[in-house]
Design brief:
Largest sheet: none
Structural class: mainly alpha
Strand content: under 5%
Helix content: over 70%
Number of strands: 0
Shape: rod-shaped
């Protein structure tokens, strides 16, 4: 009986450690995802600005007919 309790205790501690490690990893991944979304938004803004500038340049180009 003592051996079984000791084994159960070890399994519970292992489970708790794995749970904690998984929570830490999930928090880290959530932060990385948030940062990636923010970076993606900034890049989209730059792309839209570049598109706008290209459209202006194209409108200023003389027609070659």
């Amino acid at each position: 009986m003592e051996t079984e309790l000791k084994s159960l205790e070890e399994k519970v501690f292992l489970l708790l450690r794995l749970y904690r490690d998984t929570r830490i990893e999930n928090n880290k991944l959530r932060k990385e995802l948030e940062d990636t979304h923010a970076q993606n938004d900034k890049l989209n803004e730059k792309i839209n600005a570049a598109v706008g500038q290209l459209e202006i340049l194209l409108l200023k180009m003389p027609d070659n007919e």
